Amino acid sequence: MFKITAIALLALSASTSVFAADAVQQIPQAPAAVEIAPFSWSGAYVGIQGGGGWLDADFSTGFGSATEDFNGGIFGGFVGYNWQFSNGFVLGIEGDADYNWNEQDDLFGLPGLEAGTEWSGSVRGRLGYAFDRALIYGAGGWTATRAYLETPFDKESETFSGWTIGAGVDYAVTDDVFIRGEYRYNNFGDKEIAPGLNVDLDQHVVKAGIAIKF
Fold this sequence. Notes:
Blueprint: H1 2-26, E1 43-61, E2 64-84, E3 89-101, E4 114-131, E5 134-150, E6 155-172, E7 177-194, E8 197-213
Antiparallel strand pairs: 1-2, 1-8, 2-3, 3-4, 4-5, 5-6, 6-7, 7-8
């Protein structure tokens, strides 16, 4: 009787061990952790932009002065490069070129007298701070524009150059594409655009853009 009982206990113990081993083998393994690299603003980019500009022109001669507003649309492109540091700060350099639609007909109420600016551009340094995919930045540097004064008989053009400063926000909608909103103030300085006629130009600009990041 004792032998039968011992054999039964041994058989039960062996079967329990087999079931326990099967249970251990059937427990699924936890998936391996996948590290997602944080987004970085470092690298080159190129994009297009458009918006509106509000340009003030102060004309002066030996006989007096007058102010005219030249407002209109702006469209162009930009290219740049960013370096992002481990503390979240981003340093960059950017250049852009735009065309301005801001001509004014019958300047000073004189029929046939037209003025405005055509191409403008800038080279700016940028400093910003990245909140993951959002980059808030300030920028400043050199700017220039081509202004003209046209009569029925002649056209005078001059290139004005000065300084620009502004701020904006870039937001990465994907790893390779970002959108932008920006405000800028341009001071183009003053110059004689026609004999005896001096003009001082400054401009406020609001732009939106989209770019591809490499």
